[in-house]
Amino acid sequence: MGTTHEQFNVGGMSCSFCAESIKKAYSRTDGVEDVDVSLAHEEVLVEYDNDLLSEVEVKDTLRDLGYTIRDPDKAKRYEQQQAELADGKRRLLLAGGASIVVAALMGWMILVMGRFESSSLVMDLVTLGLALGTMFGSGRYIKEKAYQSLRRGIFNQHVLLEAGAFAGLLGGLLGLFVFPGFPTVHFFAVSVFITTYHILSEYTSLIVRTRASQAVQGLLDLQPDTARRVSDDGDVEEVPVDDLDIGDRVRVKPGENIPVDGEVVEGESTVDESVATGESIPEEKTGGDTVIGGSVNETGALLIEVTATGEDAFLNQIAREIEEARAMKPGIIQLADRVLKYFVPGVLTIAGLSFLFWVVAPLAWGAAPNVQRGAFAALAVLVLGYPCALGMATPLALIRGGGKAANRGILMRSGDAFQIFPDVDHIVLDKTGTITVGEPAVSEVVAFGADEVDVLTTAASAEAFSEHPLADAILEAADEQGGEYADPDAFDSVTGKGVRATVASDDVLVGKTGWLSDEGIDLSKESDDIERLQGRGLTVAGVVRDGDLIGLICIGDEIKADAAETIRRMRDAGITPMMLTGDNERTAQAVAEEVGIDRVMADVLPDEKREEIGHLQEAGHRVAMVGDGINDAPALTQADIGIAIGAGTDIAIESADIVLMGDRLGGVMDAYDIGTESYRKTRQNLATAFAFNGIGVAAATTGLVHPVFAMLAMVLSVSAVLANSFAGQLLSGEGVNTEFALDERTDDNVSDGRAAAD
């Protein structure tokens, strides 16, 4: 017994106020030691003493607050998100319909009947029914949240909303049964309208978050969770990976992900371990070599003996690193929260004092208590103080910026990204798959006594039957050069070294320079060229024909076309670029020099990447991390903003705040520009909303603001925020894209995203 960690995927969170309410609720629960809430990933991580609390009690706290705990299974979680979206739409349609009917009744009363305040009993009863139906039907869930928050001493937007809604209901009832002069319909209308606007605000946020999640879901290729276990008798059984024990043997076919950490018992293959090490050139694996779970077996079948399971396995270590990074990630205080922390209790206090003033103060000058004016004042304060526009300021900026980003192939998953990006002063980049393409390609051919095409076609003929990934690079380069080559007459592959073949009666060797020397080939004259090329981090293969070295083929990970330009844009924006990679120092320095990065850390493990970002944060820097591999996931989570390359791994995408469709690196600075612009819009929206709220509350305390005018002022504030968010975009002809409808990771997406950005 002792400390336990529980992580939940939570539905129903719509804004940072929700995250703060969850934190406060757990902080006031005996036995809870620490809690972290990630609004971007809709997750709650709770650390508690299991001697004092059970898992059920921990979950019940979330459920009591009105939030749902989603199924850990991705497919079921997706279905739950769809159901939440459908429920939100249904609530909005019901509440919106009630609001339209109430507005029509008020318009009929004013325009046709020529009366502003007095109404018929039938009209009063109809609006009462609509108010009750909206508050206790569509808006019932808000009351449950408000009650549970208030019970824990938490004053949030739900509490303020219900104070205004019940004040309107009470005012209408007083007008219906006690004070005939009260504008009954208008009081009931306030209850309907503010409940509807709150539902609209939450649905706005919900649709953004759900569709962003759906877009991410479309990117994720669910990895198989089973493995082929081979018994001592040779029988093969497909079992869950979690059921494997140390010493078990599993069969992995070419093209499959290696499911476990282990040691090769039988077979030879090349294995792409870039997701773990950052090295883009595949490793040769044979008996006795170790392999890492999550790597890709490329060429041959392997029989692997399991050497690590459970918490000791690489993928589980990465998962633990992500969990720790998420828990230790610096908290982000939303701009609105800095004021709303005091705003909600302040509005409630002012409303109460306003009512008391107009009831008690008249006694001082010998007049009777003015209950109606006090009721007007209290209700108007609550209505004008309700932060509907405040609640919509950030989601609307997210919609605007998110739509603009989606048009450029960028998925902004988190509102935090908009707020933090303008303050980012360091961008940390992985190398493989981020700055580079992530696939080996021929970058240079050096010919000796032959031309480059001859060197390539000779090598291509020799490698035609090879399954090695570097052979594919040579064949592709020969095709691009237009060279013609035929299948070899004889072929033999020397594992981990190269190939020997007979090509048009010529004896040809293609392989590592060390192997060629062992085969008796004199490379002394070319040693300077070999050292120069290897110094650039390239893999050098020699091509020998009939005993003579006719050329060197240099294979490396090609740098992306827009990498150097993106680094320049970072520097121009006052941001320091930095490379963290698991690749070797020589290769990392060569790539960094070519693109213009001064600060480089190589041979870095996943936990070391996260620690380095943590050090930068402790020094007061705002850090964005860009990566694409499993080994990048902890760092992506730790960073203030995690940016995943959409052509990368599932776990990297899930750990990120921003996803770049395809593999274009320039999207990083496009996202920075959009985030900066959107945050400016957010501040403008908040300033507009606070101006309406502040001036409105002050005017409302006089008791001279009619409830319906207060409601109109609230509508006007929301309209002003809407206009500020989208007017310029609509006038410029950009349109408003809220769908985030992005296709799967294909080459077409890469080109489409690049074209949109251009």
UniProtKB/TrEMBL annotation:
One of its GO terms (molecular function) is ATP binding. The chain crosses the membrane at residues 92-114, 120-138, 159-179, 185-203, 342-368, 374-399, 686-705. Residues 272-292 are annotated as: Disordered. The keyword Cell membrane applies. CDD domains: HMA. Its main location: membrane. InterPro entries: ATPase_P-typ_cyto_dom_N, ATPase_P-typ_P_site, ATPase_P-typ_TM_dom_sf, ATPase_P-typ_transduc_dom_A_sf, ATPase_P-type_domA, HAD-like_sf, HAD_sf, HMA_dom. Keywords: ATP-binding, Cell membrane, Membrane, Metal-binding, Nucleotide-binding, Translocase, Transmembrane, Transmembrane helix. It is a multi-pass membrane protein. One of its GO terms (cellular component) is plasma membrane. The keyword Transcription regulation does not apply. Residues 4-70 form the HMA domain. Belongs to the cation transport ATPase (P-type) (TC 3.A.3) family. Type IB subfamily. This is Cation-translocating P-type ATPase.
